[in-house]
Amino acid sequence: MLFDNHGRTLDYLRLAVTDRCNLRCHYCMPEHGLDWLSRADLLTYEEMLRLCQVFVRLGIRKVRITGGEPFVRRDLLFFMKKLSKTEGLESVSITTNGVGTAQFVPELKKIGIQSVNLSLDTLDRERFFKITRRDELPRVLETLDALLEHGFSTKINAVVMHGQNDEDILPLAGLAEKLPVSVRFIEEMPFNGGDHAVQGQLFWDHRRILETLKTRWPRLEKSPDPPFSTAANYEIPGFFGKIGIIAAWTRTFCGSCNRIRMTPQGVLKTCLYDNGVLQVRDILRSGASDEELAEKLLFAFQKRPKNGWEAEKSRENAPILESMAMIGG
Ligand code: SAM
Ligand code: SF4
Questions:
Q1: Which of 35, 179, 258, 273 could form a disulfide with 312 if both were Cys (CB 3.0 to 4.6 A apart)?
Q2: Residue 77 contacts by C-beta under 8 Å, 6 or more apart in sequence?
Q3: Which of 72, 132, 155, 159 has most ligand 1 atoms within 8 Å of its beta carbon, as the pocket-test mutant?
Q4: Which residues make beta-bridge pairs with 235?
């Protein structure tokens, strides 16, 4: 097993395979998009496979594919199929915006993927357009249908933003009444590629989200959180699915954080809020052996900040200007 310098287990890698996206969510990037990475900047699939093998040898058991929008990268399923055959890797999952995903759902099932996170911040077409700057709600809902039809364990992720989707909290939570989904509300983080400043004091923090849910469902109850869960989990009597609240800005879950991240250009992050701690791509391309690579990774894991606040402080003169599409969520 792999541990960091604070005794926390590390067994979960979030691997961002691209920075590109077919949406332009307000909370993630500006309207004009980002300075997209060139192909040479991106880790190749071969590099990712090698890296994952090294990670698994060190103790990683679970990989989540993310981005940018993972499905805009060509041959993604081919890569995922190979990845899921990695000996010792227990689970491969994916986070998607669902825009072009429905057509790939049967194949995802075939290659053994069991869990999919779908980002969906509103059920209202106009608000969807305002938030994502694209009119794609029907295609996302088509993906949700396909996921449920194929029996995927499905989580719906909604970022809650004051003035943008306040009215959607209750309808989104209501999806869990009839559907076997976990609807998770996420505090907005400042990773929007410089689109706008996020206030230090969030309006929709986890407490306010919880209070709002309780106005409608006073019998909402806390349920036990699985180990390493970033979400505080809740149940509503009579509901088929579950509700979760992720205090991503308040950072209440750092004490048991088991995750590391690889950005699309091959930078290791040991905390969501750090500024990248190791340029892994250059090591991979320098001719280093797997042992040399593993040694450098282990060294980085021993310098992990205690929590997101410490990580943010360690950025010194590098204010948070990056997009979540460069991090993977
Ligand atoms: N494009 C895919 C998607 O949207 O599901 C995967 C990548 S996206 C960066 C991963 C997750 O990060 C999504 O659930 C998205 O809602 C979330 N996210 C993006 N920007 C965020 C922000 N500023 N604050 C909180 N969550 C954010
Ligand atoms: Fe694209 Fe996901 Fe970022 Fe939205 S949150 S712009 S879908 S990468």
A1: 273
A2: 104, 107, 108, 111
A3: 159
A4: 221
Cα(123)–Cα(2) distance, integer angstroms: 41
Burial of 79 (0-12, 13-18, 19+ CB in 10 A): buried
186 lines ligand 2 (CB under 6 A): no
The single residue listed with the structure tokens 């391309």 is: 285
Q: Which of 97, 140, 261, 327 has most ligand 2 atoms within 8 Å of CB, for mutation?
A: 97
Smallest Cα–Cα separation from 158: which of 142, 178, 174, 135? 174
Q: What is the full per-residue pLDDT of the chain (329 aa) written as tens digits? A: 999 999 999 999 999 999 999 999 999 999 999 999 999 999 999 999 999 999 999 999 999 999 999 999 999 999 999 999 999 999 999 999 999 999 999 999 999 999 999 999 999 999 999 999 999 999 999 999 999 999 999 999 999 999 999 999 999 999 999 999 999 999 999 999 999 887 667 999 999 999 999 999 999 999 999 999 999 999 999 999 999 999 999 999 999 999 999 999 999 999 999 999 999 999 999 999 999 999 999 999 999 999 999 999 999 778 899 999 999 99
Q: What is the DSSP string of 233-297?
A: EEE-TT-SSEEEEE-TTTT--GGG--EEEE-TTSEEESSTTS--SEEHHHHHHTT--HHHHHHHH
> 132 alpha carbon to ligand 2 midpoint, in Å?
8
Residue 146 · residue 100 · CB < 8 Å: no
Token digits for 52? 């994952």
Q: Does the pTM exceed 0.70?
A: yes
Give the other-Cβ count within 10 Å of 248's Cβ. 22
Q: How far is the CA of 95 from the centre of ligand 1 (A)?
A: 9
